[in-house]
Specification:
The protein has 555 residues and is of the alpha+beta class.
C-alpha cells in the first residue's frame, strides 16, 4: 500500500481545530470568476474539477463551497464545477448520487476530455464521488482521468475500528454518523454498494488519491477502501495527515493537501500492485489479446493484467525462474525459464508447455520472435544461442562471445543480441552465421537491446551507465547518462519515437531521443528495482521487482 504520512506538530493540529469554524466564513476572493456553479481562479486552463461538497448529505453552504472551489481551481489550474446536489432528508439516496452522475455527464457533454477531468469530494461528497465511480463503471460510462476523496464514509454499516478508537479525538463522532446514515439511506441497505463504496467491485477504477486525518473516526473507512482498491489492481495513494481531525482540509492546513493533489495530478507515473515484493515482477510485454503480460520470476508465475485492470496469475513452476517473455508468431507468449533451463509457451487461456534445449544447464535468458516464424533465445550460462519452432524443434549455435543476454529482431532480417560478459553486440543470421562488434567502453556489460525507430539497434550498458546505438553496418555510438551509477537494464521503443529504459540502480525510467537527448522520470521509490519495460496501451509500463507495475504517461 502506497501510504504517505503527512507530518504535523501538535500546535498545528490544535490550530486546525480552533480555526475550522472560521474557515467556513472566509470570503470568496475578488479575482474569482463565478458562472453559475463554475468557479475559475486566474490562470485556470482547460480540463475540469467536479467538486462534490460535504455536509452529511443534508447541508450545503454555497459561499464556503465556492471558496473551496476557488482553492481547487487555483491548485489544479482547472475550472471547478460545484455540484449542487439534492439533499436529505427530503431527497434521500439515490437522489444525490443521481445528481453527481448528471453533473459528470454534463461535463462530458461540454466536450471536456474525460482524461483531463477530476472528481473531487470531501466527507459525504467523497462518498458520493466513490459511489459515482462505481456506477460509471457498472453502466459502462466514461470515467474521469482521476479522482480525489477526502475523508470519505465508505462503509455506512459503520464497522471500522477507528469509529470507536478515535471517538472523542475527532470533531466527528460515531453517533453523528449513525444519524447521517439513517437520514441519507432512508431504509436502503447500509452494507451494499454503491451507497457504501467499500462493498463494491473496485476493479477498473481510475487512479485514486485518498486523504484522511490520523485522528478521524473515518480513518479506517479511508484505509480499508484504499487497501481494497489496491488489491483490485487500482492505482491508489493514501495520505494520512498526522493529528488532523475531520474536515481539516477546510482550514489553512488544506493547502498542504491541495499542493499534494496538484503534484499527484501532474505526476506521469502511476503504480499498480500485482503481487507481493517476493513475487519479483521482471519482464513484460503486450500480448496478442491486448493485455499486459509479466513474468513473476521469484513466484514462478506469469501474470496477465487485462485492459479493465483484472489480474490473472498463472503458475508455471515454483523453481523455474520465468525470466523474459515475448509474443510469438502462433498467438501465444513464449518465455525463458532460467532456473529450470527450459523454453516455455503460454496460451492466452493459460495453458503452458515447455521444451528443454539440448545443452543442459544453459540458463536461457533472452527470447524474441524472429523474421523466420520461429523464436530465438540466448543460453547465457552456456554461451550459446537457440532457435525454436512453434512445434518445439530446437537448434543451437555457438555465441561469438560470453554470456549472451537480451535478443531482438533487427531491421536487416537478422537477430541482434548483447554479450554481457563479452562486452560486445552480436548478430546472427537465419542460417546461423554469427559476428560480434566489440564495445569501445571496457566493462560496459550490455544487457537490454531493442530495434529503434531509426533502423538501428539500441542497447543499455549496465556496467558503464550508458546507452548505445549500433547501425546494421556496425557503426557504434555511446551516450553517457548524467548519472553513470544508474545501472540501465532494459530498453524499448516508445509510442513517441524515443527510446525508453529502466534505471535499476536509481529507481527511475529514462528516455533518450534518436539524437541523444536524455530525460528521466522518478518512479514511486528509489529502491523499487525497475527491470523490464514495454509499450502498452499508449503508455510505457515498467516492472518493479518490489511487486508492482508502473505506468508512465508519455508526454
Amino acid at each position: 500500500m502506497n501510504i504517505t504520512t503527512v507530518p504535523a506538530t501538535p500546535a498545528q493540529a490544535a490550530a486546525v481545530r480552533d480555526s475550522l469554524g472560521a474557515a467556513l466564513a472566509v470570503s470568496l476572493p475578488a479575482d474569482a470568476e463565478v458562472s453559475g456553479d463554475w468557479v475559475r481562479a486566474p490562470g485556470a486552463g482547460d480540463g475540469a474539477v467536479v467538486y462534490v461538497h460535504g455536509g452529511g448529505f443534508a447541508h450545503t453552504m454555497p459561499e464556503a463551497e465556492r471558496v473551496m472551489a476557488y482553492r481547487l481551481s487555483k491548485a489544479t489550474g482547472r475550472p471547478v464545477l460545484r455540484v449542487n446536489y439534492r439533499l436529505a432528508p427530503a431527497h434521500p439516496y439515490p437522489a444525490a448520487l443521481e445528481d453527481v452522475l448528471t453533473a459528470w455527464q454534463g461535463v462530458l457533454d461540454q466536450g471536456i476530455p474525460a482524461s483531463k477531468a477530476v472528481l473531487f469530494g470531501e466527507s459525504a461528497g467523497a462518498t458520493l464521488v466513490l459511489s459515482a465511480l462505481l456506477e460509471i463503471k457498472r453502466t459502462g460510462g466514461t470515467p474521469p482521468g482521476a479522482a480525489v476523496a477526502v475523508s470519505p464514509v465508505t462503509d455506512l454499516a459503520l464497522t471500522g475500528a477507528s469509529l470507536s478508537a478515535d471517538d472523542g479525538k475527532d470533531v466527528m463522532s460515531r453517533a453523528v454518523l449513525e444519524a447521517i446514515g439513517a437520514q441519507y439511506l432512508a431504509g436502503a441497505p447500509a452494507d451494499q454498494a454503491p451507497q457504501s463504496p467499500l462493498y463494491g467491485e473496485l476493479r477498473g477504477l481510475p487512479p485514486l488519491l485518498i486523504a484522511a486525518g490520523a485522528d478521524e473516526v473515518l480513518l479506517d473507512d479511508a484505509r480499508r477502501f484504499a487497501e481494497a482498491a489496491e488489491a483490485a489492481g487500482v492505482s491508489v495513494c493514501l495520505d494520512v495527515h498526522e493529528g488532523m481531525p475531520h474536515a481539516f482540509h477546510l482550514s489553512d492546513r488544506g493547502d498542504v493537501l491541495l499542493d499534494r493533489m496538484s503534484r499527484w495530478l501532474a505526476d506521469p507515473v502511476r503504480e499498480f500492485t500485482i503481487g507481493t515484493p517476493e513475487a519479483g515482477p521482471y519482464a513484460l510485454t503486450e500480448g496478442p489479446d491486448g493485455a499486459l503480460w509479466c513474468t513473476l520470476t521469484h513466484q514462478g508465475a506469469i501474470a496477465r493484467r487485462g485492459t479493465d485492470g483484472s489480474l490473472t496469475v498463472h503458475p508455471v513452476g515454483a523453481d523455474t525462474g520465468p525470466t523474459i517473455l515475448a509474443q510469438g508468431p502462433d498467438g501465444s507468449l513464449w518465455f525463458t525459464q532460467y532456473r529450470a533451463h527450459r523454453i516455455a509457451r503460454i496460451t492466452v487461456e493459460g495453458t503452458v508447455t515447455s521444451f528443454t534445449p539440448p545443452t543442459t544447464g544453459g540458463g536461457p535468458f533472452g527470447i524474441a520472435a524472429g523474421p523466420d516464424g520461429a523464436m530465438w533465445f540466448t543460453l547465457s550460462g552456456a554461451d550459446r544461442l537457440g532457435r525454436i519452432t512453434t512445434d518445439g524443434d530446437i537448434t543451437e549455435y555457438p555465441a561469438p562471445g560470453a554470456f549472451p543476454a537480451a535478443i531482438t529482431a533487427g531491421p536487416d532480417g537478422a537477430m541482434w543480441f548483447t554479450l554481457n560478459q563479452g562486452n560486445a553486440i552480436g548478430r546472427i543470421t537465419m542460417d546461423g552465421r554469427t559476428t560480434a562488434c566489440p564495445l569501445p567502453t571496457e566493462a560496459a556489460a550490455p544487457v537490454g537491446i531493442t530495434a529503434g525507430p531509426d533502423d538501428a539497434l539500441w542497447f543499455v550498458e549496465i556496467g558503464a551507465g550508458q546507452i548505445g546505438r549500433i547501425t546494421v553496418d556496425g557503426e557504434l555510438t555511446e551516450y553517457p547518462l548524467p548519472d553513470r551509477e544508474t545501472r540501465p537494464h532494459a530498453i524499448t521503443t516508445g509510442p513517441d519515437g524515443a527510446l525508453w529504459f529502466s534505471e535499476w540502480g536509481r529507481g527511475r525510467v529514462g528516455r533518450i531521443t534518436v539524437d541523444g537527448r536524455i530525460t528521466s522520470y522518478d518512479l514511486p521509490r528509489p529502491d523499487c528495482e525497475p527491470h523490464g519495460i514495454a509499450h502498452h496501451d499508449g503508455a510505457l509500463w515498467c516492472a518493479l521487482e518490489t511487486g508492482s507495475l508502473a505506468r508512465i504517461e508519455v508526454p
